[in-house]
Amino acid sequence: MSSASDRPVVASFDSEHLTIGAGAAIFHVASSRVVVCYHPVHEYWFLPKGRRDANEETGFAAEREGFEESGYRNRLLPTFQRHRQPRPHNPSSPVPAVFSIEPVWMQLVPVSHTAQYVLFWYIAETLAPDIETSVNSEAEAQGMTYQIPPRFPAELTLAERVKQDGNGYEPVRHENTGVDAEEAQYASYLLSIPDAMEKLKGTVMTDVVRKGWKGIQLRWEMEGKAARNAKAQNSQ
Questions:
Q1: Going along the chain, which residue ranges are E strands?
Q2: How far apart are CA 136 and CA 139, in angstroms?
Q3: How far apart are CA 62 and CA 26, in angstroms?
């Protein structure tokens, strides 16, 4: 059930009783839509998610699972969000300190009476047309379906990113990206934020979409204000 954060807990699990997973709310910022999946047999809506592969970074797992379950290539999108992680000491970090690709939500889900599932939710975006083409070519050349996309450039603003899509661009949905018979049944759709919230109503995934979209809007406003201030200073 969707709610505010729960109270902190104290618990410990060894590797034999712990599963780490990741999921993503994948936004097409230009059209104010988000990817939502549907299970036609059990008739429920959900955001793409799944278990992290061994030795895989959790953020990369969110991108990969997003692609496998929804068919949309995607990459983590730095947004403005409040979190408790320290700022990077490395000045060459690819993400500006004011924006973050940290998970926006975390769930603790019991798998059994002895096993724990820890699920991290991230914010991602669909790829620009040229990047989609490039990643498709790389994947084809390597004989693979999935290919890790390039990171969101630190110097790129959201306004500049939206222009890359051009007028009326529709993100590509790839077919047959599921890795098993269960995932092969999934359907996915790009829905408006209100429609997605209604489909996901009663789950923590509404919080993920809400927080993700708010972080995107705040980044847009901050970058817009910075651009207006810079223009005003240059005109003096």
A1: 18-28, 33-39, 44-46, 49-51, 74-76, 105-110, 116-126, 187-192
A2: 5
A3: 10
Question: Of 146, 158, 169, 162, nearest to 66 (Cα)?
Answer: 146
**Residue 125's pLDDT band (cuts 50, 70, 90):** very high
From CA 229, how far away is CA 225, in angstroms rounded?
6
Strands 105-110 and 74-76, by their bridges, are unpaired
In the structure encoding, which two tokens stand for residue 48, read together?
């793409």
β-pair partners for 46? 37
**What mean pLDDT do residues 12-41 have?**
97
pTM, full prediction: 0.94
What's the chain's length in residues? 236
DSSP state of 77: -
DSSP character at residue 128: P
Q: Please report, as a single letter, which amino acid is at residue 107.
A: Q
Q: Which residues contact 166 (CB under 8 A, 6 or more apart)?
A: 129
Q: What's the rounded Cα separation, in Å, for the pair 121 and 47?
A: 9
Q: Among 119, 107, 102, 108, which Cα is nearest to 11's?
A: 108
Maximum CA extent, the chain: 67
